[in-house]
Amino acid sequence: MTLIVFTLRYPFADYAEVFLDTEMQYLADFDRVIFCHFGKERNDVRPEALARINAIVDVIGVPIIRGHTWALWMRALLVLPAAGPDLLREVMARAKHSGRRRPTLAVIGPSVLGILKLRIQAAVLKDELSPLLARSRVPVFYSYWFAGGAYLAGLLADELGGKAVARAHAFDVYDDIYGYRYFHSCSIRRLDAVFACSEHGMNRLRVELPDYSTRIHRAYLGTRSPAALPVTPSHHCEAFHVLTCANVNPGKRLERVVDALSLTTCGPIHWTHIGGPDAEMIALREYASERLRSRPEITSDFLGFLSNEEVTTYYESSHVDLFVSTSDHEGLPVTMMEAMSFGVPVVGTDVGGVAEIVRDNVNGFIVPIDDAVEDRFAQVIDRVCSADAQTISALRSNAKQTWHEHFRAESNYSRFFRYLSSLRIQA
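Structure (tokenized):
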């Protein structure tokens, strides 16, 4: 069986899709994988990512359509007749999102350009994929995001006799946060299923696309089973150890960690941050140095980007007391799954699907976002820092149990790929 996977840049270096490293190890019946990526750079492929995949691997770049050349418009004229229904759907969806009764030029222009570009990309990809799929009876097209790749997956599945599915995470779900989500209404009608990574995301998509609600499901991501470690703090270091693991960007609001630490009363505390990019991480480190200057008992280190394996190694070799997430918006963070797999309790903001993994006062703590959010994080840190051994043991055991019941890669990805394999039988 052949699986065609649409990504932003994977298997090239990309922070956003690093979790595919784990998922691609559970391919079940698929013996060939073709990655179709939207990345511009073609020289930074990660051979270690491909080496883990137990299948024949091909990598194809989705053609980049630039500018408004005569060649582009000539190609557009060829695909325009078949694109008509999708153009209408996209125009109406954009108009509805903008709150206008009638489409304006500002709505029609991007709709037409977006659909035509995707149609041209599909035509080029069809030519490239056809020889590779000559012996594959029912290829499965899988888009890791519910965006342009999902549209291509559905369209090519129709034209090449396959099946198509997509995942949906956060930026491709929450239009009130990230702006208008392109091509949902056009994509869903050709997809066999869309798998939201949280129940919260699933419900949001079902409201957005009520005519296709039966095609929208929840499928949690997961992390691999770690080495057997005790969930009690038997190897606890002197300082209370707080960990954050996230890209440093405005949505993650990591400055809240610094502000919360400045308000704590317990100590000593050591904060470790994992995640880049380097320039933003350096700015965060400088902010922490200045803000915590009067608190010498609070120390920190910034490790930058680490691979999945390196994060796992870090947990295996370092005791962590509390994982902290201060984001303004999330889907359902895999970083929380990683922490809980090692029995680390989590405190996170009440956004997206966070409440599906963090059970308040059971395996961690939920913090509402309000004017006192930094104070609330500080209170949680102080509370866990000063808790007795029995309370800590319960938190850590419950965290481990939550991961085992709901977020094990072995269970979640095996189930997902069994479903994809079954699509061939349904064809």
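The longest strand covers residues 298-304. Residues 144 and 167 are 5 Å apart (CA to CA).
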